[in-house]
Amino acid sequence: MRGAIVTTSLPTQSITFTPDQRRMLGQVYTLILSWRSKKRKLETTSSQTVKPNVDETTQPVCDQNGGSDD
Q: pLDDT of 53-68, one tens digit each?
């Protein structure tokens, strides 16, 4: 069934939350929104940092006493 659209019917009853449940939902929404804010801050700081050049190669360290004097 490629391309099938699944639909869900809306609940017919309205849900009534207790004051404590509303407070907890508010905390959850605040937490979720803080994630977005933190993600934006991370993206801003990471775009401002200097990234090392990937094309640069390091030279091997030569041993000063590595050659023979024959």
A: 655 555 555 555 555 5
Q: Which residues contact 70 (CB under 8 A, 6 or more apart)?
A: none
Residue owning tokens 């404590």: 20
| 43 contacts: CB under 8 Å, gap ≥ 6 | none
Q: Which residues contact 3 (CB under 8 A, 6 or more apart)?
A: none
Q: Which residue has the tokens 């990937």?
A: 54
- The letter for the amino acid at 7 is T
> In 3-state terms, what secondary structure has residue 53?
coil
Q: Which residues contact 17 (CB under 8 A, 6 or more apart)?
A: 25
pLDDT at res. 60: 56
Range list of H helices, the chain: 19-48
